[in-house]
Amino acid sequence: MSRRDWSATLGLDAGARRSRLGFLELSAADRKALADLARVLEPRLEALVDRWHRFLLRRPETRELMARSGVREHLRTVQTRYFRTLLAGPYDRRYFHERLRIGFVHERVGLEPPWYTGAYRKFLQLVAEVLRAEGVSGSEAVRWIEALEKVVFLDLQLALDAYFHTRNQALVQANERLQALAERLEAQNRALTEAFGRAQEAARVKEAFLAQVSHELRTPLNAILGFADLLSDGIDGPVTPEQRRTLARIRSHGERLVEMIDQMLDAAKLAAVALGAPEAFDPGPVVAEVIRSGEDLAAGKGLEFQTDLARPIPPVQGEPEGLRLALGHLVENAVKFTREGRVGLRVRAHGDRVRFEVWDTGPGVPEEHRQRIFEPFHQVDSGDTREVTGLGMGLPLARRAVERMGGTLELAETGPDGSVFALELPLATAFPRVDFPNPRD
User: Fold this and answer.
1) Does 136 reside within a domain?
2) Is 271 within a domain?
3) 10-24, 45-59, 257-271, 291-305 — which is least confidently predicted?
4) What is the CATH number of the domain that holds 45?
5) Model confidence over 375-401: pLDDT tens digits?
6) Is the dihedral of CA 276, 280, 281, 284 positive or negative?
7) Do the bridges between strand 408-415 and strand 342-350 make them parallel or antiparallel, or are there none, so unpaired?
8) Are residues 32 and 147 located together in one domain of the fold?
9) What is the CATH number of the domain that holds 309?
10) Rounded to whole angstroms, what are the CA distances from 436 to 311, 318, 407, 433?
11) Rounded CA gap, 117 and 100, in Å?
12) 282 and 159: one domain?
């Protein structure tokens, strides 16, 4: 950078430069004092530089700089030349530009204001010690030091100008980069918002289509099942044993399709409903509905359905439809996988949560399937001749519904004597405590 560029960088025009040089206010008496001081110091300049040099090397930042650059002796030469210029001048525009350039160099190599102030203060202290050692009278020494301070303080001011200007420029550039980054992030946020909106709309259309198709499939399937029952009952005439077995297979496969469609409808319903913040509600009516359904399912297989409920069931945080879906799937699964014995539902307060347990006396979950039963479409019996049918979506849908409400669903126990699935929801401590009727009362 040229000499003109140094002052231009700080925005210093010709008037500003004259003002800076005017700060010296070097009268003829000041110049004579500096000349007299130079004559006294010149024979002792090498010793003075050596002391100052050793002082600077005690500073950690100077030692680090010297370790990097390896210019200790060069620094001594530069410091000696600096003292001679400082004492002898000339204090003109060239001097001003040289001092400003040195300030930028110091900043560039990592020397900061505490270093400047300490270095200049030590220099004035060493000069005063030399004058005392040479017997210079007090008043004359004060006059020489005051003249020297004017030049030293200008050097310090220029060093600080360079330092803070560079720091300010760095802050301006950092602010510009942050502003550009903020604009890019804002643009990305707008793009993500638009993409999210499109994804939501696509999901809504997909789920609406799935729900409509599932509904339209269920209608003719119910008709097929109804006609199969009518034929089996002999409404159109006698039915042979072979025909009855065929009609039974029609009903079995039809019911399998209905079950899969029901699970598709549940999935569509869960995905389409935007669940807001969980609210406090009474789970009693939901539990009562699930119990009635479970009793009907269990009776159809000759199973006993047992309940063990808290009285009253504490209120919970969540959403009734989510609890209905999750508990319903757990009970359906328990009945489906239990050939004989019992299926049951227990409800208890469990710390700061309410625990719903669905248990059965079925064969349990094999070890190799216990980590995967909550994965979509995973089925414990996946063979072509499996007895239990379905899409393998019941447990994944149940867990998804529970987790959306801030709860948990896990396989708590399993073995050859049966399984226990535990569903927990947060206790609604802020919900008004009233005596809800027990669902079995």
Assistant:
1) yes
2) no
3) 10-24
4) 1.10.490.10
5) 765 455 533 334 444 455 678 888 888
6) positive
7) unpaired
8) yes
9) 3.30.565.10
10) 8, 17, 22, 9
11) 16
12) no
Residue 171 sits in which domain range?
3-181
Alpha carbon distance 51, 133 (integer Å) = 15
- Asked if residue 375 lies in contact with residue 396, where contact means CB atoms within 8 angstroms, the answer is yes
Tell me what pLDDT residue 398 has: 85
Say yes or no: 158 and 14 in one domain: yes
Q: Are 404 and 353 a contacting pair, CB within 8 Å?
A: no
Contact 390, 259 (CB under 8 A): yes
What sign does the CA torsion over 158, 163, 167, 170 have?
positive
Q: Is the pLDDT of residue 195 over 80?
A: yes
Contact 426, 317 (CB under 8 A): yes
381, 388 in Cβ contact below 8 A? yes
Q: What are phi and psi of 317, to 5 degrees?
A: -95, 130
Main-chain phi, psi angles of 274, to 5 degrees: -85, 100
- 166, 181, 196 — which closes off a domain? 181
Contact 365/439 with Cβ under 8 angstroms? no
pLDDT at residue 50 greater than cutoff 80: yes
Number of domains in the chain: 2
Tokens linked to 206 = 């997909």
Residues 6+ apart with CB under 8 A from 260: 389, 390, 391
173 lies in a domain? yes
For residue 216, tell me if it sits in a domain. Answer: no
| Number of helical (H) and strand (E) elements in the chain, helices listed first | 13, 7
pLDDT tens digits, residue range 52-78? 878 877 877 776 766 665 556 666 677
Residue 303 identity:
L
Q: What is the DSSP letter of 42?
A: G
> Would you put residue 413 in left (φ > 0), alpha (ψ -120 to 50) or beta?
beta
Contact between 419 and 365 under an 8 Å Cβ cutoff? The reply is yes
Last residue of a domain, one of 148, 181, 214: 181
Task: Please enumerate in sequence order all residues whose Cβ is within 8 A of that of 386, keeping only pairs 6 or more positions apart, or say none.
Answer: 379
SS3 413: strand
Measuring CA to CA, which residue among 417, 420, 333 is closest to residue 381? 333
Residue 388 to residue 401: CA distance in whole angstroms: 23
What residues contact residue 50 under an 8 Å CB cut-off, 6+ apart?
76
Task: Decide: 283 and 315 in contact? Cβ < 8 Å.
Answer: yes
CA contacts within 13 A on the Cβ side of 117: 5
**pLDDT at residue 424, rounded to an integer:** 95
Residue type, 174: A
Q: What is the predicted pLDDT for the residue at 388? A: 47
Considering the domain architecture, whether residues 176 and 291 belong to the same structural domain is answered as no
pTM of the model: 0.46
